[in-house]
Amino acid sequence: MKDEKILTLHPKGKKGVNILLRRYDVIKDYILTTIKKEGDISFEELGDRAVADLSETFDGKVLWYVVTVKLDLEAREMIERIPKTSPHRLRLKE
Predict the structure, then answer these.
(1) How far is it, in rounded angstroms, from Cα 92 to Cα 35?
(2) Residue among 28, 35, 39 nearest 76 (CA)
(3) With pLDDT > 90 as the criterion, what percentage of the chain qualifies?
(4) Residue ranges per domain, the chain?
(5) Most buried among 4, 9, 13, 30, by the most CB within 10 A?
(6) Architecture field, domain 5-92
């Protein structure tokens, strides 16, 4: 059986990347759960936490996947960057 893939989206309409759906789901769930728990979080902190929490069990470069899936979730309007925050902060989209 071939591993199912998903073509990620990009908020600026750039070309997405094909990644394994099982990896996408792990990172997506992690991002959404973490943001839901925190209310909002800096992208840097989200990345640091993901690396700390997932590196032992995740079979890929955690930070690369966090960046890729975060952009996809922005494009799908599930999360958003909070305007005028530096470094940029993320929250769930209303």
Answers:
(1) 7
(2) 28
(3) 95
(4) 5-92
(5) 30
(6) Orthogonal Bundle (1.10)
| Residue in the block written with tokens 């494009």 | 75
Question: Is 11 within 8 Å of 75 (Cβ atoms)?
Answer: yes
Instruction: Say how far apart CA 54 and CA 51 lie, in whole Å.
Output: 5
What does the block give as tokens for 83? 């305007």
pLDDT tens per residue across span 52-85: 999 999 999 999 999 999 999 999 999 999 999 9
Residues 3-25: b if buried by 16+ CB within 10 A, e if exposed:
eeebebbeeeeeeeeebeeebbe
